[in-house]
Amino acid sequence: MANELNENKLNKEQPLHATNHYLYYPDEKNIPPYLAYGFRPVFLLLAPYMVISMILWGLVWSGVLSIPFMNDTLTWHIYEMLFGILTAGVMAFLTTGIPELFPGMVPFVGRRLKIIVVLWILSRISFWTIDITGIYLAAILNIGMLVWLLWFAKEAVLDPLQRHASLGYSLIVILAIEVWFFSSMLGFASTNGLSILTVAIGAIVILVLLALRRVNMEAVNELMEDKGIDDIYISRPPLTNLAIFCVAIFTIVEFLYPQNSALGWIGLATAASILALTSDYILKDKFILNQGYVIYLALIPILLSIGYALMGWDLLNDDFYAINHFRHFITSGGIGLSYLVIMMIIGYIHSGRHLTVNIYTNMMVFLIVLATCMRSLIPFFENYTHEMYLYSSILWAIPFAIYMKVFYSFLLNPRADGIKG
Fold first, then answer.
1. Would you say residue 6 has pLDDT above 80?
2. Does the record bear DNA damage in its keywords (predicted)?
3. Could you report the per-residue pLDDT of 156-198, keeping only the tens digit for each?
């Protein structure tokens, strides 16, 4: 009876989609706010890690700094910016989202959360000391992180209705790619490590598209509710599925036939399919493309689309030098912005606050876009290559420094609405 009363009270006073964990929160004493929900410690660590690592890489690629203890710097740089950051982002997304998507699942908090966060820290230390501690240790710790994430996401994979199973299946593919990568670096597989990482980019883009479909449904409808807009946003699965199919085809063909001119046309088709996702924001009755978070979210597929379009254009012109620069519209742009915007949305909604647009949020998004353009368009300004490497890295890092200023007080204190988590 008490649980029924609590549930009725919750339904009346709180938006249920962001508080489904409330009735199942573990009865653990003295949980500090920074361990009260999965996203909190991850964002506290990920923001400064983004700042430090990106500025460090900018100094390396601009020729100011070298990393003498790391061989094959380019390959390991790409690996870390893909997998090292991915595991933290996915951990925050899953430990926050799955208890909301599957009511009855006990949220992952307290001591258990601390252990897995420490594992991520050890994984990052093993990466930066890889030429000292060895590839085997880095492989065990980093692959172990993804294995744990899959175990945590098993509720979604085993769900009889398969409502969110695609997230779990995507993680299985990404895990297989990471095992393949380490096998290559250890000499057990003959495939070039950089080729494997291009496959990883495609898999991560697919994961981002799947995650954004769910984030859009929560964030845009939450925003319209706050604004009193009497309409509903629906992320249409056929559009997302078409974009995922095109990304998968591009990734496979690029791996097998990287210089085939047909890949150029596939790149253009992939760009069009991803750009089509923005049509979901055109509602029947209300115009919402002037809303801050709608613009932020729409910029993600736009940047991804620009990346695939420019790579396709480059391939059709038989110029294979610029393609990897243009790929930064996908990595630094689309994927990087998706991390930042999701961190902002979760930081507001899951700390018991309303989504807020201000000079800080606008500046964060603008600087990511500016840094991406600066980094990706280096082929058109070759005389300033080193300067653009450095300045784009600094500009890309600043939004995460701003994030620390704006959101750290939210992450270090209990929810504003008094709910646990």
1. no
2. no
3. 777 777 777 888 889 999 999 999 999 999 999 999 999 999 9
**Residue with structure tokens 């490590």?**
193
User: Taking a C-beta distance cutoff of 8 angstroms, is the pair 333, 307 a contact?
Assistant: yes
229 token code pair: 């807009």
Contact (Cβ atoms closer than 8 angstroms) between residue 268 and residue 241: no
- Residue 324: is it exposed, middle or buried by C-beta count within 10 angstroms (0-12/13-18/19+)? middle
- The strand pairing partners of 282, in sequence order, are 287
Binning pLDDT at 50, 70 and 90, where does residue 69 land? Answer: low
374 Cβ contact list (under 8 Å, min separation 6): 388, 391, 392, 395
The 10s digit of each residue's pLDDT in 368-402 is 999 999 999 998 888 888 889 899 999 999 999 99
Provide DSSP, 98-142: HHHHSTTPPP--HHHHHHHHHHHHHHHHHHHTHHHH-HHHHHHHH
Residues 136, 186 contacting (CB under 8 angstroms): yes
Whether residue 341 is predicted with pLDDT greater than 70 in this model: the reply is: yes
- 103: Cα separation from own chain's centroid: 24
- For 18, the token pair is 């962001």
DSSP 42-68: HHHHHHHHHHHHHHHHHHHHTTS---T
Question: For residue 207, which phi and psi values (nearest 5 degrees)?
Answer: -60, -40
Q: How far is CA 235 from the centre of its chain?
A: 18
What distance, in Å, lies between the first and last C-alpha atoms of the chain?
23
In 3D space, the residue among 419, 411, 370 whose CA is nearest the CA of residue 45 turns out to be: 411
**What domains appear along the chain, each with residue ranges and CATH number?**
16-411 (1.20.210)
CB 138 within 8 A of CB 126: yes
